[in-house]
User: Fold this.
Amino acid sequence: MGRSIDRLLADFGHTLPTTPTTQRAKSQRVFPSAPSWRGRPKKGAGWVASRPPVRRYRMTSDQAGVFWPFLTGTPLPVSGAPMGTDMLSGATFYVDPHGWVLDDAVPVTNPNIFVFGKPGRGKSAWVKAFLNRMFAFGYQALILGDPKDEYEPMCRHFGVEPISIGPGQPARLNPLDPGPLATDWNHLTRAEHSRRVGIILGRQLQLLSSLISAQTLGEAKVPVGPTEAQILRRILEHLTHATTDTRGLRPIVIPEIWQHLHSPDQQLITDLRYSDRESFLRDTRLLRDAVAQLVSGPLVGIFDAPTTIRIDWDAPIQSLSLSRLMALGDDAIGMALMCLNSWGTAARQTSQRRRINVRDEVWRQLRLGTGAVASFDADLRLSRSNGDIEIANAHKPSDYLGAGHAGSQAQQIAKDLLHLADTRILFGQDPEIADDLEHLLDLGPTARDVVTGWAMNGKGRALACVGPRHYKVALTLHPDLEAPLTDTNQNITRNIPPNVPPNVRANVPPEARR
Assistant:
């Protein structure tokens, strides 16, 4: 017969534990009886005669998050400017472009920011609030062209008077100014001398090529090919003494370029391999006329003389107003923006302070052609090495595609610009823009619906795209300190008529009712 387990173990000196003979006392139940699902059959006890009908819903995982928010975005570091509330997690949403670039945990490789949104949805308010909050971290804002004077109240709040650029204004600005790189020229080493010459002449040549190619010849743009670029570079080297004099770099202005083209010396003709003066004048007639247009065109008296303005680089904000140019058309404003960008790049070349450069109405510059697009593209690509944050405002992503004809080089470069900013703030858009959001910005259907749905139901709502991560953010403004500075409806609320309904008048600031 086989042995049981306990007998087998006992033969080898092991005894299994036995079950205790004492019975445990039954625990007292807190609720000795459970009520029926119908409730207790007495008054006020909730008794019902039948079960309520059960409703069933079928939904996808992105819809289920409305009822059960089981998914939240990956939290960002608590650093930089607090810009509002992350609606998915309820936490404060912080924006720190430079901090994100330095943090490997955040999928951001450049500090640039693109802001898109339908007019009136809160783009300008977001930018102004961001600037105001980044001042506390030592940043300085430079508004490189304010076509609508939106930043004037903010400048005056900090005791800074905006600089007006336009016909009849005393301010003159030389976009070919070499800037601080031209200081201490005679103390530079040969290598440093060559490096600075390359930077200064490269920027000046880029500006001249952009301004010339922005002009039209019938339906086409004025061509600036290798021959024209070589002529302009030779003239720049000759006028600035960049390659012949180590004592200093001579500052020049645009009228000198035209004068040298109109009356070339024999050395220039020989260096450019022309047989005589007549052949030079014949082949460069279109180039000379295009440069002459820069001297006598709509920008005459603005960008054709030595700089007369002085920037206070210790002030928190500086703004260059272009509202006086609005009557001259979009092309004039676009060319003025290019001049301001070139001058601003030179002026802050050796500055050690971190800056936020705001570029408003950038579409006016991009539509001028390949040269204008390439100039803006260079500024975006150099922001990481310069230590600047570039902020560009536009109404919709397709604004960047207006740089040229379909399939042209200008349009392709402009389309690639959309990927030079890892941070994009998308305010409310009409449903007609949905396809642009999905195709040009690589947004999925869920993010697209947030922009065309949730963000359209309230001002200040935006989808913040930080690399591939998306956050639903509602902007928060201080009602007394920030709201007046970020208001962009001054021109609408100024001089309110007496027959305005009381409920509308109550929302108008007192200073605007006078």
Observations:
- The first strand starts at residue 81 and ends at 86.
- The two ends are 113 Å apart (CA to CA).
